[in-house]
Amino acid sequence: MKIENITTLGELKKTGYQSKSIKDELRQNLINNIKENRTSFPGVHGYENTVIPELERAILSRHNINLLGLRGQAKTRLARLMLNLLDEYIPVVEGSEINDDPLQPISRFAIELIKEKGDKTPINWLHRSDRFAEKLATPDVTVADIIGDVDPIKAANLKLSYADDRVIHYGMIPRANRCIFVINELPDLQARIQVALFNILQEGDIQIRGFKLRLPLDMQFVFTANPEDYTNRGSIVTPLKDRIGSQILTHYPADIETARTITKQEANLDKNQNELVYVPELARDILEQIVFEARESEFIDAKSGVSARLSITAFQNLISTAERRMLLAEDESTSVRLSDFLGVIPAITGKVELVYEGEQEGAAKVAQNLIGSAVKSLFTEFFPEIEKLKKQDQVTPYDAVLSWFFNQENGFELLDNLRNKEYYNLLDVITPLDDLLGEFQPKLSKEDSYLVKEFVLWALSEYKQLNKNRFTEGIQFKDLYSSFIQGL
Question: Which single residue of 15, 122, 209, 403 could bond 94 by disulfide (Cβ 3.0 to 4.6 Å)?
Fold first, then answer.
């Protein structure tokens, strides 16, 4: 019989439906996925051998879970993806505030309704997408918000005394019975509110205003917390930690390839941006390397973390910078340039917490340094290392390029909004760059080669072989000693 045709308790009993707890649902459906080699947490990358196995073990153990990690580590996403492990539909008593199971009712309303109507008790079907509740822990959260309280208006309207449990107004947790309930940033929850969760986690019941009320709630709790919060804003009280079955540590992507996959998946670009703006692979690597540099930077607070959202928003800014340039130059399409990376600075400055030294340096300057450090870190993967000091008469692969700049009295200027043709012609003037790319990167496509030419110039400036100066309309590259020699 189809679900939509089962509308009463009697019809449900005839199907042989068996009630099971939400933790048993999650466990059984996870077992089925593992047996059939199906992914239970699609779209989560970099956790295949770390977080996901621990999460699956916690689900198999029927544990409530605490996901502990810095911001932007997909903690809430993991909790939301657990919905996929629930049965598609479950039956509930029609009109129940707390999703009563028709075969195992727990509220006074459902018990009395079934007693009155028996097998004719009406039922509804709740889809798994509606079985997720989420609460951000903030200092103003009260016990009444999450557990419940006595409602004087209900008492007056129904002409009930305060001794009658029908005057109770249920909070978020009872209303999420038979659901996954997520409390984000748990340490921010006041200690007295955390204490109110003890009974729910251990005995599965709630207490409201001294009522002798036992509601054996059936719930899967998932908590998220940031290690920084333990010292900066609050802590998880020890008895509550003791009642949480599994604490799972999350982490940032361990390599650039994983980070690129996440950024590409989450960037959500406009169709025109995908079609009209070409992104060389090197540009994607530089973007992710910026985030890796930020996590190691002495100017950025490591305890606060550098969210994966930084690379996502920075990538969106990078594409938009190239798109805007394309529109201003009236080109039909374009490719990302290294100078476009200056357009990601607003995405960086808004996503990092600076330490005192970083504040002194300035957020924009720190962001520019991160871009330069990313270029420097990746350079040796494509070209020989640039030595800061070389012996007399020692020949290096970069001598011809540096000699070319030595002979340019006014330096070499690369404007931000050049048309594609002007940009290509300008870089083609530096002929030693073609020889360098031909020797060390012979398989580069023409479209990628111009970004790599810029990449070499930026790297030479990072290694103190060229001067790079930013001015209003672009960047100037100049020989390191030419100004001094000309002065003499």
Answer: 122
pLDDT, tens only, 81-130: 999 999 999 999 999 989 999 999 988 889 999 999 999 999 999 999 99
Task: Check if the beta carbon of residue 151 is closer than 8 Å to that of residue 169.
Answer: yes
Helices (H), 139-270: 143-146, 152-158, 172-175, 191-195, 198-202, 229-232, 238-243, 256-266
Residue 236 has pLDDT above 50, yes or no: yes
Nearest to 96 by CA among 117, 135, 122, 120: 122
First and final C-alpha spacing in the chain: 96
- Band of the pLDDT at 231, cuts 50, 70, 90? very low
Helix residue spans in 383-445 (DSSP H): 399-406, 420-428, 431-440
Pair of tokens at residue 151: 């409602």
Interacting residues of 287 by C-beta distance below 8 A, sequence separation 6+: 263, 311, 314, 315, 318, 341, 344, 374
DSSP state of 387: P
Q: Angle, nearest 10°, between helix axes 51-60 and 22-35?
A: 130
CATH class belonging to 3-249: alpha beta
Query: Among candidates 161, 167, 146, 162, which has minimal Cα distance to 217?
Result: 146
Domains of the chain, by residue range, sit at 3-249, 252-379, 386-488
Q: How far from chain centre, in Å, is Cα 237?
A: 27
* Per-residue pLDDT band at 215 (split at 50, 70, 90): confident
Give the bridge partners for 475, in sequence order.
414, 470
CATH of 252-379, one of 1.10.4160, 1.10.150, 1.10.260, 1.10.8: 1.10.8
- Please state, in angstroms and rounded to a whole number, the distance separating the CA atoms of residues 373 and 361: 16
What would the pLDDT profile of 427-450 be if each residue is shown by its tens digit?
A: 999 999 999 999 999 999 988 999
Query: By three-state DSSP, how is residue 292 classified?
Result: helix
Q: Which residues pair with 179 in a beta bridge?
A: none
In 3D, which of 458, 480, 478 has the Cα closest to residue 411?
478
- In the DSSP assignment, the letter for residue 189 is S
Q: Per the structure block, which two tokens stand in for 202?
A: 């251990």
Contacting residues for 119 by C-beta, under 8 A, at least 6 apart: 8, 9, 10, 13
Task: Tell the residue number behind the tokens 């509110």, with chain if given.
Answer: 193
Side by side, the strands of the sheet bearing 220-225 are 132-136, 180-184, 220-225, 65-68, 246-249
| Cα dihedral 310, 282, 473, 360 sign | positive
Answer yes or no: is pLDDT of 162 > 80: no
Strand partners, 413: 476
